[in-house]
Amino acid sequence: MAVRIVVRGAVVAAVTAGSLIPAALVGAPSAMADPCPNGTARVFLGNSTNSCQGAGSVSYTEAPVSKVCSMAGTDVTVEIQTNIKKRPLRTQEISNGQCAAFDMKTQIGNTVTVTPS
After folding, report:
1. d(CA 48, CA 28)
2. Each residue of 71-80: pLDDT tens digit?
3. Which of 21, 23, 46, 86 has the smallest CB count inside 10 Å?
4. How large is the average pLDDT for residues 76-102?
5. What is the DSSP letter of 37?
6. Distant-in-sequence, close-in-space partners of 6: CB < 8 Å, separation ≥ 6
7. Which helix (H) or strand (E) holds 72?
8. How many CA atoms lie within 13 A of 32 on its CB side?
């Protein structure tokens, strides 16, 4: 009887964990699922939209930047302006398939600069 309870508990735990993992993966933005061309970056915004950005600088005003992924052959600089007094500007450099995530709650401005390398 004790074995049956342990087995049932393990099955319930596995089913529960299995149902949570795909939901978490579906909600996470991924540059690999829908890649942009080489020499660009995929920019994810806080309003659940994303787009490919080519060479140049863009400030996104419709929503805060949540994540940026560089594609192959790309150098990206992301500048996030925050309302945090001790750290009003965060600069992150990424390249060649790297991604960086950003806090949307404290963001008051942003600029994403893409340079093909």
Report:
1. 10
2. 999 999 999 9
3. 86
4. 96
5. P
6. none
7. none
8. 7
